[in-house]
Structures are given as C-alpha cells and as structure tokens.
Design a protein that fits this description.
The structure holds 2 protein chains of 2 kinds. By secondary structure, chain A is an alpha/beta fold. Chain A is 33% helix and 26% strand. In chain A, helix 14 packs parallel to helix 15. The model of chain A has no long low-confidence stretch (mean pLDDT 88). Chain B is an all-alpha fold. Chain B has a single domain, classed as ABC transporter involved in vitamin B12 uptake, BtuC (Orthogonal Bundle). Chain B contains 14 helices and 2 strands, in the order H-H-H-H-E-H-E-H-H-H-H-H-H-H-H-H. Chain B has a two-stranded antiparallel ribbon with strand order 1-2. In chain B, helix 1 packs across helix 6 and helix 1 packs antiparallel against helix 11. In chain B, 50% of the residues are buried. The chains are: A alpha/beta, B mainly alpha. Chains A and B meet through helix 2 of A and helix 7 and helix 8 of B.
Chain lengths: 519, 316
C-alpha cells in the first residue's frame, strides 16, 4: 500500500442520530485501493452504524459518500439500499453470517443477485464459484450445504459472495471473532492477497493485536466521533487503546498468587449429548479447585455450553459423575446445585440470566426469594426485595434508574453486573452454610465495553482470591491467559490438555483448539 | 372395476382437495408463515364457489370465485401476521372459526334471490374419460377418469415442486422461510414474498373447497369440509414440506376414505361413526409419529423461520 494509491471510497462528515443517541458525529473516513483499513472502537462507538450507512442499511442525516475510480477521481453517490451498495462494488461480510444453512454454497452465493435466470443452472454457477475460489485461494466445497461446512469455510463463502458480485470495496465486521488463531491467520493472508489485487478492505475490530498485525492504517472511533486515523507502523497497542477508550487502560490485571485449596467441582468421565442428540461431551474430566480460576479455551460449539449445563444441573449426564465439594450431584436438579453453592453466570444474559421484562429487583432476588427476609412464610416481601436489590445495585455499581426498571432496559454491562451481584451473593450464603462456592462464568465479558469488562474481571478475581472455585469460559485467549491459573482446552467435547498460562503460548492454545495437538 | 382400482379411484377423487390445500399450505409455510386458517378458507371457498356456480350457471366461474375468496381471507392473515406481526397461530385459528361461521351464514342466503343454498342443485365438474390412458390396467380408470380439477393437479403439483427446487423465485422463497434476515440483506423483499405465497396458499385452499362443493359432494351442506383443512395442515408436516410427498399423503388419506366407504357398502358390522373417524385417527397417528422424532423433523426441513414474524430493526 502506498499513500499515493487512488482513493476507493471516502465518507465525509457523516452524522447519524437515532432517537436519543448520536451514533455518528461528523465522521470522516478515507480508504485507498490496495489498503487494509481497520476501523477500531468499543461497542457503541459507531463502527457498525458507519458501515450500515456505507452499505445502505441506514440513511445519514448529513454527510456525503464518494466513490473513486481507477484514477482516484471521486464522485458523490447516494446509497439507499444494500442493492445500491452492491451495484457500486461495496460488499459486506457480516459478523453473524448471512447464510441460509439449508441451502448449498452456490445457492447462497447467487441469492438475491441480479441477472440470475428464472430457471436456475446450478452447474454453471458452481463452476464459476469454483474458479473464483481458486483464483483467490479460498477453497470451499461449492455444492455442500452451509450446515455441513466449518465456520472458517462459511466465512470464505461470505467473502466469495461479495467478490462474486464484483466487490471492489470489502467490509468485514469482526471477521476473526469465531475463528481459531490459525484460521484467523488464514483470513489475514486472504485479506492481504485481496488488497494485493487492488481491493480496498475495511476491517472492523476491537482487538488491538489483530489490528496491529493485519491493517495498514487504522481509524479509531470513540462515542461516534473519528478521533484519529494513523498508520499502523507509526503507533503501538497502548496508544491505540488510549485513543479507543479515551483514557489509560490496564492491559494487565493484578492478581496475587493466592492459596489454591482442595478440589471443589469435579467432573469425572462425563458423556452428554447436545440438543440435537449428538454426543457433545466425550468422557470429559475436569477439576476446579478452591481459590483458582480454571479457564476453558475453545472455538465456540466444542462443548462449552454443554459443560456449563452439566456443571449446573441443567443437562442430563449419560455417563460419569459430577461432584461438588464431595457431594455427588450427578443428574440432580439445578436447585440441588444451587444449594451446594454453585453459581452460574450464563452466556445468554437475557435468555437464561435475566427475565428481561421483570423489574431488576425481581431478577436480583431470584436466588434470595426462598430465604428470609424476602420470604415471609409463603409470601414475598416486596419492600424487602426492593431494599435487597437497592443494596446490591449500590455495592456492585449497577447503573440503573432504580430497582423497578425492567432488566432488559439496562445496558449489557449493567445487566452482567446485576447477574454477578446475584450469583456472588448466593455464593456468600453458601459459604455461610459451610460450603465451598463454585462460580461458573460463561463468556462473562462478551459484548461489554472496556469499563464494564474491567469491573467483571475484578469481581471474578476477587471471588477466586476469596476461595471460590471459578470456571471461566471465554473466547478471548488474552483474557484467559491473563485471568486463569490453569487453562483447559476443549475440542470436540474432549479436553485436549490443561496448561498453566505461563507455560504456554497463544499459538499452542490455537493448535489445541484446532484439535491438532494434545498436552 | 376390481377392488384395488375402485379404491384407488376414490382415493384420487377424495384426495384431490387435500392436495390443493396442502400444496398451497406448503408454499405458505415455506415462506415462514404458518396459516392454520386452511379449514376456514376451504369452507368459504366451497360455499362461495357453489353460490357463484349456481348464479352464473358455470362451474369454472365457481372455482375462480372460490379461489379468490380463499386468497382474500389469506390476505387478512397476511396483514395481521406480516404487517402487524400478530401471533400466527391465533390469527390462523381465528380465520378458521370466522370462516366456518361466515360460511354457514352465507349458505343461508347466497342462493338465487337470497334463498338458502342447502339442497340446491347446481353446475358441477363431471368425470372426463381420457381415451387411451384410461384403458391402462388398474391406474387408468383411477387417474384418467376424473374431473378437470383433478387433471389440473397433474400440472399444479409438478409446477409447485419445480418452482421450489429449480427456480430463482423458489430459491428466494426458501431463503425467506429459512432466514429472513439473510434474505433481506441480500436484497430480497421479505414482506412481498410472504404476502405473495400466503395469498397463493389461500387461493389453493379456496380451490380445494370448490372441488368439494362442485365435484366431490356437489352442493352445499353445513360443515361441508368436515375438518379436511386440518388434515391438509397435518399433511404438510407428513410431507415434510415437499409437494411431491403431499400427493402420496393425500392418496393415503383418500384411500382411508375409500376403504371406509367400501366397508360401509359391504355392510360391515363396524359402526359408521367409527369408520368416519378413521382419517382423523390417522392424522393423530401421523402427527404423533412425526413429533415423536423431533430430530427427524428438524432434519427433514421445517422452515427455520416458520411462525416467526420478521422485523428488520429487531436484533436477534
């Protein structure tokens, strides 16, 4: 990439408001041909809004979009639908793939395209797609169904879909979020090759490492404003993090060595099936000790969900045992797990974590309503419930208008803090009953902004240092390396190995996540 | 005609309305809209088709009117569920109940000069024997000695299958029913597709009703459809959303009807009411078997977005 390469697309002074929210405030962005341009920012910084303006999903209130030709001369365009954007050579690869699982790769690629004949000729489409995939070295099985292929392949299908429509400007929204480090490296190589052919690549991310290794230039958005556009070569991670958050951020976390106690949660030779009846945990054995964080690494869908459900009594175990603090709880109901001191921060905040339409107070009291003072015989004391919630709101710093606000109206970070407050409190009561508490946290920082992530991590570390056995499932390897005392890697429902963070590397974890290595 | 041929002939004749209704419902459901109002659309199609045929003296006019009435009722369902995003089950049930009541009411006064339709004789579709083909042993008389609406099915079913499996609009239809978010992002008008195939499903339910009142049991009586709309809904699941298999299912149900007639004609000691229950018992058995194997059902292709309203601004 050179600074003299012609400009492919320019956004000038884009402003977009939603009721009560200024999502983009006078944002400029310029991307050149042959360049990989990262768009960096926290959740809610306005990255997705800006790209939705560029792809015609949203109309900007103010501002201009210009498209450049080969010589770099710009002409203003109006984009009122995704169709217009495609017509101008703008292709988008969404974070949540826009693919129909029950249709084939080739069928997905021609979906909605202009010029497709009434009677389909899938043979020739498949030949075209195969040629394209060969040219860009992105192998895909053209006649396979989407549900049959891997996530990495699905992403290649998405990229090919854009290229098949003649995309010159390719936007990728968090393309590596669901990939192993090795797959992510492949994507980076693919993007590099595409840029080499003169395509302009816009790459949305909040991962600093990735931006540093993949991008040529980076534009940082914060609270809807463009705070800087810099060459990656002329900056470093700390500078970018500061630009992104607007203050200094701790990229490490203080953690004492702590005293690791006896095994509290023991999962021994467990076999369990997923919702589709397929074996998801294969003879899985894990131990979590008091006072440690056991991190679980793995690509999503390799048994993490089933593991949390088995460890909380929500899923039947076919073989093996689950014991908590010496008590055999195999296939006992969830309430027995709760009584034994198992707390659960589920991955699905508004699904399993909270009842969104109920007031925050009811949500926070969901593990307290069976005990006094909230329970008064068979009756509930609402005044005490509100007071209980008010106390937790204050102690856990939950930002809410009050305990009567429906849980769904809180931001993701505050919902997570409310869940943590409830679960950690339940753990305290377990300790009072003489039990050793267990905290199972599934993706606790997913989708949160930097401030909330810090809070959540601090709470988890505090619990660990206080003697709780913490099982932490995460897809952020950096987080696992920083937080965990030991890391277990899941692949295909099996433990590929348990390692100490100090004795491993991200690359090694990646190989284990891909199932290519055991330790 | 030997026994097998006569049973097959009645099975085809009795199954025709089921094929129309279930193929129509398959197209509707493939777009992600569940319309449980088939029974209501069918009975409204039956009464208006018969009334129009009597008034015009032409059975074809009756079919056109019946189809359009079915389609219009389906558009009510479409407006409620697609535009207003009302619950599809509730709206469909309301359509069935309202259709049944309205049909009884209209049956009292849609005859010439506002007379009741009950007991009236009107134009009807008669069997047309196709020379040559009808001489084929066993299947000849069963398939090629039928009325025009049955023959129309020989065209409609392959077309419906071809549309779904081999054409661009069919690809769009399947995409909308499986993943409306994706279809929308790819520039397909989800609302338009869903409205269109809900309407088409309604037209076919109306024609199904017309076949009953103009060919199968010519004339109008209360509760003419007798739950055939519900059998059609069950057939959609039985057919795993594939028009070809709907034909097989309809023949099976028609065959049960035929055997029941046959047994009654032979003067069996089994009470008639018990025999009349047979198709409905079969429906229950089929549904139990299919839902029992939930995993199979998912694999065989219930549209993933079936029953779910689509809202672009809603995040999933």
């Amino acid at each position: 990439m050179t600074d003299t390469a012609p400009i492919a697309v320019a956004l000038r002074g884009i402003t977009k408001t939603f009721p009560g929210v200024l999502a983009n405030d006078d944002v400029d962005l310029e991307v050149r041909r042959g360049e990989i341009h990262a768009l960096l920012g926290e959740n809610g910084a306005g990255k997705s809004t800006l790209m939705s303006v560029l792809t015609g999903l949203y109309q900007p209130d103010r501002g201009q979009i210009l498209i450049g030709d080969e010589t770099g001369s710009l002409r203003p365009v109006t984009i009122v639908s995704p169709r217009d954007a495609i017509g101008l050579g703008i292709g988008m690869v969404h974070q949540h793939f826009k693919l129909v699982p029950t249709q084939t790769v080739a069928e997905n690629i021609i979906l909605g395209m202009d010029g497709v004949p009434f009677v389909l000729d899938m043979g020739s489409v498949e030949a075209d797609v195969a040629a394209l995939s060969e040219r860009f070295r992105m192998p895909v099985p053209v006649s396979a169904f989407i549900w049959q292929i891997s996530v990495g392949e699905q992403q290649r299908v998405e990229i090919l879909k854009a290229l098949y429509r003649g995309a010159e400007i390719l936007i990728l929204d968090e393309p590596t979020a669901v990939l192993t480090p090795q797959e992510a490296a492949e994507v980076a190589a693919t993007l590099r090759a595409l840029a080499g052919e003169g395509k302009a690549i816009i790459f949305i991310s909040h991962k600093l490492d990735e931006v540093m290794t993949v991008a040529d230039r980076v534009t940082v958005l914060r609270k809807g404003r463009n705070v800087a556009t810099v060459d990656v070569g002329a900056t470093d991670k700390h500078r970018l993090a500061e630009l992104m958050v607007g203050r200094e951020v701790a990229t490490t976390i203080d953690k004492d060595d702590g005293a690791i106690g006896p095994v509290v949660l023991r999962i021994d030779g467990v076999v369990a099936r997923n919702d589709r009846g397929i074996v998801a945990l294969k003879d899985l054995t894990l131990e979590v000790r008091a006072g440690e964080i056991l991190g679980i690494a793995g690509v999503a869908g390799n048994g993490q969900r089933e593991l949390t459900e088995v460890a909380t009594g929500l899923r039947r175990v076919e073989q093996g045992t689950v014991t908590v603090d010496g008590e055999d709880l195999t296939n006992r109901p969830p309430v027995r797990f709760i009584d034994a001191g198992v707390s659960h921060v589920p991955s699905d905040r508004l699904g399993r974590g909270l009842a969104g339409n109920l007031p925050l107070a009811d949500n926070m009291a969901m593990k307290a309503y069976r005990r006094p003072p909230i329970a008064a015989g068979p009756m509930l004391r609402r005044d005490r419930m509100r007071a209980f919630a008010g106390d937790l709101i204050e102690r856990f710093n939950v930002d809410t208008p009050g305990p009567d606000t429906p849980a769904r109206n809180l931001s993701g970070g505050n919902q997570q803090k409310a869940i943590l407050a409830r679960e950690i409190t339940a753990g305290t009561w377990a300790r009072e009953r003489g039990r050793r508490p267990v905290l199972i946290a599934a993706y606790p920082t997913r989708g949160l902004d930097v401030g909330a992530i810090e809070d959540v991590r601090r709470h988890l570390i505090e619990q660990r240092s206080g003697g709780t056995a913490v099982l932490l499932i995460s897809e952020e390897l950096d987080e696992l390396m920083m937080m965990s005392d030991r890391i277990a890697v899941l692949h295909g429902g099996e433990v590929m190995g348990v390692v100490a963070p100090a004795e491993t590397t991200i690359e090694e974890l990646g190989l284990m996540m891909a199932g290519e290595m055991r330790r | 005609m030997d026994l097998l041929t006569s049973i097959l002939a009645i099975a085809v004749f009795a199954g025709a309305s089921l094929v129309y209704a279930s193929v129509g419902e398959i197209l509707t459901e493939r777009s992600g809209i569940l319309n449980l109002g088939v029974e209501g659309m069918m009975i409204m199609g039956a009464v208006t088709a018969f009334a129009a045929a009597v008034a015009s003296g032409n059975a074809v006019v009756g079919v056109v009117v019946g189809g359009l009435v079915g389609g219009m009722l389906a558009l009510v369902h479409a407006f409620l569920t697609i535009t207003l995003r009302a619950d599809q089950v509730v709206s469909g049930l309301a359509l069935t109940l309202a259709g049944g009541g309205l049909a009884s009411f209209l049956g009292q006064r849609l005859g010439p000069g506002g007379a009741p339709l009950v007991g009236m004789v009107g134009p009807r579709f008669r069997a047309i024997t196709i020379p040559g083909l009808s001489d084929i042993p066993v299947i000849g008389p069963a398939f090629f000695d039928q009325d025009a609406l049955v023959y129309l099915l020989f065209l409609v079913v392959p077309l419906a299958w071809f549309l779904l499996a081999r054409t661009r609009p069919g690809l769009y239809l399947r995409a909308v029913g499986e993943n409306p978010q994706t279809a929308d992002a790819m520039g397909i008008d989800v609302f338009q597709v869903r409205y269109l195939y809900t309407f088409v499903g309604g037209v076919m339910a109306g024609v199904a009703g017309a076949h009953l009142s103009l060919a199968y049991t010519p004339g109008w009586t209360e509760n003419l459809t007798g739950g055939r709309g519900w059998i059609a809904v069950a057939l959609v699941i039985f057919a795993t959303w594939d028009p070809r298999k709907a034909v097989a299912g309809a023949l099976l149900f028609g065959g049960v009807n035929a055997i029941q007639f046959r047994l009654q004609a032979e003067g069996t000691t089994i009470p008639a009411s018990l025999l009349n229950m047979m198709p409905y018992i079969l429906t229950i058995v089929v549904l139990v078997v299919i839902t029992r194997f939930e995993s199979i059902r998912k694999k065989v292709g219930a549209p993933a977005a079936l029953g779910l309203p689509y809202n672009r601004e809603e995040r999933t």
